[in-house]
Description:
Two copies of one chain form a homodimer. Chain A is of the alpha/beta class.
Amino acid sequence: MRLLIVDDEKLIRDVIKTYAETENYETVEAENGLEALEIIKNQKIDLIVLDIMMPKMDGMTFLEEIKKTQNIPVIILSARNEEYDKLKGFDLGTDDYLTKPFSPKELLARIKAILKRSGKMTPDNYEYKGLKIDYPGHAVYIDGKEIKLTLKEYELLCYFVTNENIALSRNQLLNKIWGYDFFGDDRTIDTHVKMLRNNLGPYRNLITTVRGVGYKFSVKENE
Amino acid sequence: MRLLIVDDEKLIRDVIKTYAETENYETVEAENGLEALEIIKNQKIDLIVLDIMMPKMDGMTFLEEIKKTQNIPVIILSARNEEYDKLKGFDLGTDDYLTKPFSPKELLARIKAILKRSGKMTPDNYEYKGLKIDYPGHAVYIDGKEIKLTLKEYELLCYFVTNENIALSRNQLLNKIWGYDFFGDDRTIDTHVKMLRNNLGPYRNLITTVRGVGYKFSVKENE
DNA sequence: CTTTTATGTGAAGTATTTGTGAAAGAAAAA
DNA sequence: TTTTTCTTTCACAAATACTTCACATAAAAG
């Protein structure tokens, strides 16, 4: 069980690290979002403790970034009175939120709760028949052969896969993958879905159109 | 499922609103107790999120006021260290409280728990015999086989199902499903009901005609 | 029983939504 | 810079959905 602690203050990191280690969690540290992204790319992380206020790449940006493709639970640390509305991309199902100053005991309790709740940890790959996604490697395979997806196509696919059997509106997709500050055309999604379908070849029909709503990924074998 | 959010800080209301909407709750806002009372009078509210400290009419007064006549569950928000024993009218069976600052996740979890407890929770699917609606998937199944409904047919069915045994006028249906800005013909509903009935096959008679009024969905086995 | 009123329904016409190729615009790589 | 790759927009075709209409049918009223 490995935690990533992202905070620019070494003192805070040390405190968390100390307490976490008494509970036998491994810890990895990062000073800012950029560093954290690097680590996420290369290591399997089970939970992230994330400070919102940081230089270089702040917590929110980092959060939106990783939520595009990964589903690692996150505990957010923020100063009291910070603006709540910045907390976009925050996934109510898997994440939690604590205000500074916090009691280490409470943090540990929440860590425990989240890890328990999410039971089986974030898998590092997805597989359905000959379709395979290797999350750490950012790669997708069809029948053993790697297919080359652009970033948006990959993000789309990941989001679809983690929301199997759920109809996703264009807005939802835009917000989650493009970010809340994208003000372009809805239909750009259609184009990306088209490309993704083409690239999925024999698996193209796993993405179905939900007319009037958006798209849905499902492996159900209906006619 | 409609929540009333009562808080004098717009920021807090916005945060709650944002998160509540991701869970598909409708939200109504009020700045103070007086406003909230007005709303309660005129709308059906399933749960109230209530800040205790407010100008004009504070949360406590409001709480006592509505508890006299209604039994809507309430989640109370209060600053840490406020005296809880002042919480008159607080019903331990149906209500809950949270201290600020709170985690949105926790609030939503409590909302869900309370709604579930009070039997009001919208489940994410509906089932009656071989008729099944999968809300997240926007899909309807009859005896295990998916039937393809158009958006309007699907919306109609959902609205019927959530208003079982209630006669719905054409106007009501138009307003809810078509929106208040639709100025077309009433009878278009008849056509959609016709199509929906056809698609429901063996379950077509769950939608009965209420002559002079509109339609009604009911599972009662009459005549 | 006849008339009136309301609903059921098939079919035609209208409107909307989606698929798609291509071009323009951005970003990254060379 | 130039070249390449990726992203976004656009335009039009195709598919699908929605609305209206006219007449058939059924229920209620006279």
